[in-house]
Amino acid sequence: MTDLTVTSVPSRSVQFDSAEMTARVKRRYRSERRFKALGGGALLLTAVFVLAVLLDIAFKGLPAFTQHYLVLDVPVKAEIVDPKGARNPDDLRSADYFAVMREALTAAVPGIEGRVAKKKLTGLLSSGAGNDLRDRIAADPSLIGTTVKVPLLLSDGADLYLKGQQTAVSTIPGRGTATPSDTKGDITILASANDFADDLVAVKKTLAARIEDLQVRLQRAEARGESQASEAASLKEEIVALAARVDQPAVAENLDEKMPSLLVSINGGLVKLNTISNDSATGTVILPLNTIDEARPLDWSVVTYAKPESNRKTSDIEVAYLEKLKADGNVESRFNTIFFTHGDSREAEQAGILGSLVGSVLMLIVTLSLALPFGVLAAVYLEEFAPKNKFTNLIEININNLAAVPSIVFGLLGLAVFLNFFGLPRSAPLVGGLVLALMVLPTIIIAARASMKAVPPSIKEAALGVGASHQQAIFHHVLPLATPGIMTGTIIGMAHALGETAPLLMIGMLAFIVDVPQGLTDPATALPAQIYIWSDLPEQAFEAKTAAAIMVLLGVLLLMNGMAIWLRSKFERRW
After folding, report:
1. What is the DSSP string of 411-477?
2. Which domains does the chain have, with CATH numbers?
3. Span 354-389, pLDDT tens digits
4. Is residue 361 packed enough to be buried (19+ CB in 10 Å), middle (13-18) or exposed (0-12)?
5. Residue partners of 447: CB distance under 8 A and separation at least 6
6. Is 454 exposed, middle or buried (0-12, 13-18, 19+ CB in 10 A)?
7. Is 164 helix (H, G, I), strand (E, B) or coil?
């Protein structure tokens, strides 16, 4: 035998209470505190950004959940609604209800003269304002010949103004007396206490601000050289002309559409000013005056619309009509049921998300019907029955890679296979569901395999030990215990599919669809695609509609993810 020589290693003593060791411990603690502080700061910063985004969406979207209506007593004249007297429901539905509403609206704002003024007044109503009245008359023809109180849908411009999104309105009572020259047409208003002096100063300041903007444009034109020489000369002339007007503070000024609008409320009427000086103003009567008597101090006022008329959709005349109707108690704000009960429309006040919601539901039904059974069966086969060789390893790698493939690739696949090769209809929920099923399938397979691996092997071994076949052990014991995890992965995958837009663009589900789809092959769109369509429209009212649709989509996604968390916590077993 060989003798082993053991060499002893001299032990090293550690002084735990030494100054060096104490310093090292303090450094570790400081490092740990810094790490915790950085982690907490990162979480806080993330929460702030998420909260800011949600608040911005909510602030923009909440106005879309309300809608303004004009509530009027509408005389339903038989000679307009039912001239034949047949009370035929088809004839009643095709009657000219807009003429009936126009008469009621004209009666609500008396004294309006001229074709343009009357057109502005009726333009406050939406083209679908008569839908409610038409449905009521068709359902109950006995209302013909009576007066019906009906809510009339206002246009998107009128609705935006009443929501405070068009212009701010300020009113300053007059200090002296004011005397109008007439009750209608173009008139002159004389004030005894220089009541228009402050407004004239504000006009001069507006001109000065316009000069600054023109000077910036002039510098840019001069920087571009000879190509912009004519533009630079024109800008210089305009600057000189405006500067001459600003240098004469007491000289009267003409008001154009680029300036804040000034109106005078006097003797029960309203006058839009065209020219203003310190003690007088000329303008056009919008709402007729009751008299030309002298208005005493505080009995008349100067009304200012802060945003220039050229920068808003609602004109001064329309604002005046709305303020008159609002003061008479004819304007009401109600919950916007149209947003949830109508399909898409080119007119913002009539646009809704019902069509896109139904299209999304139909797509998810197709997706769930295909992805769940095929995904679970594929997971069971790969996890329990497939031989472990290079071919199955290749399949597993490809499944994992497919879960990370950009969604638009699946859209290209659907375009090439389902539309071009099989000839399925474009913009149909069936095709959208097939494309989303391909996209969700890898996620469900991975989640199902992970859930099956989480089941203790003893469960399957016990089943096999009492005589169960391999298939019985999997389907009767392992799979039921893995169901909570499979359901969670499936719901998360479906939520992912609900929020997808890119693959739907490739199969034509970005089309303008008004009707609500009734089947899997009808033309349809999805909620994310609807949001994309609305975000690209120029009308201001669609901005709120877009944010409101995002809120609905986020609510559905949160509900689905909350359901996944609840299912996991309720049915999950801890081993």
Report:
1. HHHHIIIIIIIS-PPTT-HHHHHHHHHHHHHHHHHHHHHHHHHHS-HHHHHHHHHTT--HHHHIIII
2. 41-166+312-336 (no CATH), 169-311 (no CATH), 349-571 (1.10.3720.10)
3. 999 999 999 999 999 999 999 999 999 988 888 888
4. middle
5. 485, 486, 488, 489, 490, 492, 493
6. middle
7. coil
Q: In Å, how far from its chain's centre is CA 322?
A: 25
pLDDT band at 16 (very low <50, low <70, confident <90, very high): low
Q: In this model, does residue 467 exceed pLDDT 80?
A: yes
At 105, list the tokens. 């609206």
Q: What is the pLDDT of residues 148-180, one digit of tens each?
A: 888 999 999 899 999 988 888 889 998 889 999
280 pairs with which residues across the strands? Answer: 190
Contact call for residues 500 and 474 (beta carbons, < 8 A) = no
Cα(534)–Cα(521) distance, integer angstroms: 24
H helix or E strand, kind and range, residue 89: helix 89-93
Spatial contact of 31 and 25, defined as CB atoms under 8 Å apart: no
Q: For 293-426, where are the alpha helices, taking DSSP H only?
A: 316-327, 338-341, 354-380, 390-402, 407-414
- Among residues 253, 319, 325, 327, the alpha carbon closest in space to that of 286 is found at 319
Compute the Cα dihedral for 400, 401, 407, 411 and give only its sign. Answer: negative
Residue 179 bridge partners (DSSP)? 190
Q: Tens digit of pLDDT for each residue in 455-466? A: 888 888 898 888
pLDDT in tens, 283-310: 999 989 989 999 999 899 999 988 888 8
